[in-house]
Design goal:
Helix content: 25-40%
Oligomer: single chain
Number of helices: 12
Structural class: alpha+beta
Largest sheet: 4 strands, antiparallel
Strand content: 5-15%
Distance between the termini: 10 Å
Length: 415
């Protein structure tokens, strides 16, 4: 990425995030088209979005494209309290959290997680949840309240959804084959698969979505986010989030009968089905330019040990969709849980307090800030936060020559 493009990208991200946040969080409705307006601002500033960003997967069928299109429309929609929004919520639409550099990406805003760690270091959920939503519907009697016993507070960035269908299509067996929880090969890396019960199917699966790999499928991801991020209940997640308030108080504010997501008679689908269709067929961000320095940087990436967790490629299993069937994805993640010194102190799903799922590096050049909490402004900052299992990798990185480190950064900036 050139310096000019990086500067433009940063300003575009802030403009886009702010405008879409206003629209989707505060409930601005038509005729204001926030996405078209953002595009006009970006191009007026002389910037451009990465080629292919927001496109559907190549090779999808007309029916799959229709699923993608319907899902995109629902993904951009702005919910209202009369439709079930709230009482507690973080945004009034999916795109409130997923819009940079285009719809389906991330935002530089965070959600809040919290809990209690006792004197023995054991984590406890307080107020029936670890998620405390930022907003509430008027008259705000049901604003989330953090219990006084909270002593662990964590913030989490939204994770981009580009290529999510390919990630879902990777077989559990592929991920289980990568884990080494007892570090039997003595390389210092002890990643483990997050075994969770998938709400959509009731099956035990390997989690792969979320910072804690707490979710295994896109339909469960959709249902969970619709309820917990927007307060719109569905048949998989039928209970409103409490956010530290009482059930009695919640009933005073929740005036729409649950579940609030229902089957549209025109399509035979729920909103969460539409969200799933959009994410399943959303393509990854294409790689940037591959130069000689980038190729040299990839060799450094492997030599210092980054690829031990950021596994360069995975292959999907058999799939009914030709666009997802046995495809190789340059994800640069093993999708396993690791303790590399960047955990947020929250236990969730199968993940312990200090474990985080290896973030994928594809699309890295259009993501800022970095790390689960947005605490790293640059790739160099993010590298510097690695410890724990990554201690040996960081030692080798710091011992590398300056040209080698420059090449490594060029490689990462091509993602």
């Amino acid at each position: 990425m050139t310096a000019a493009f990086a500067k433009a990208s940063a300003s575009q991200a802030l403009v886009l995030a702010a405008l879409i946040w206003i629209a989707t969080t505060l409930g601005v409705s038509a005729p204001f088209d926030s996405y078209a307006f953002v595009n006009s601002v970006v191009f007026a500033q002389g910037g451009q979005f990465p080629a292919g960003a927001g496109d559907p997967l190549p090779g999808i069928t007309p029916r799959e494209f229709e699923d993608f299109r319907l899902g995109l429309d629902d993904f951009k929609s702005i919910e209202q309290p009369s439709e079930g929004l709230g009482p507690l919520f973080n945004g009034a639409g999916c795109a409130a959290c997923h819009n940079v550099p285009v719809v389906g990406g991330m935002t530089p805003m965070t959600e809040m997680r919290a809990g209690h760690r006792d004197a023995d270091g054991k984590f406890h959920v307080v107020g029936f949840t670890t998620l405390f939503q930022m907003f509430s519907i008027p008259d705000h009697r049901c604003q989330a309240v953090m219990p006084p016993e909270v002593n662990v507070i964590a913030r989490r960035m939204p994770i981009p959804l580009f290529g999510a269908g390919l990630v879902e299509a990777v077989a559990d067996e592929t991920l289980l084959a990568l884990e080494d929880p007892f570090d039997r090969d003595r390389d210092g890396i002890s990643g483990r698969a997050a075994l969770v019960t998938d709400v959509a199917t009731g099956q035990r699966r390997v989690g792969r979505f979320g910072w804690k790999a707490q979710i295994a499928t896109l339909l469960t991801f959709s249902g969970d986010a619709y309820t917990n991020e927007m307060g719109i209940t569905n048949d998989m997640f039928p209970l409103e989030p409490l956010g530290g308030i009482s059930q009695a108080r919640l009933r005073e504010c929740d005036l729409v009968k649950d579940p609030e997501d229902f089957v549209d008679p025109r399509t035979g689908k729920r909103a969460i089905d539409n969200f799933e269709g959009f994410m399943k067929f959303l393509a990854p961000i294409p790689r940037g330019a591959i130069t000689d320095e980038v190729r040299a940087g990839e060799q450094v990436f492997a030599a210092v040990g980054c690829a031990s967790c950021h596994v360069p490629t995975l292959t999907t299993g058999a799939n009914r969709s030709a666009a997802l069937n046995r495809k190789t994805l340059a994800l640069f993640s093993d999708l396993l849980l690791h303790d590399v010194g960047t955990g947020d102190g929250i236990e969730q799903g199968a993940a312990e307090q200090n474990e985080i799922r290896t973030p994928a590096l594809w699309g890295l050049r259009v993501r800022r800030p970095l790390m689960h909490d947005g605490s790293a402004a640059t790739v160099t900052d993010a590298i510097g936060q690695h410890r724990g299992e990554a201690a040996g990798v960081i030692e080798r990185y710091r011992a590398a020559s300056e040209p080698m480190r420059r090449a490594l950064l060029a490689f990462l900036d091509s993602m």
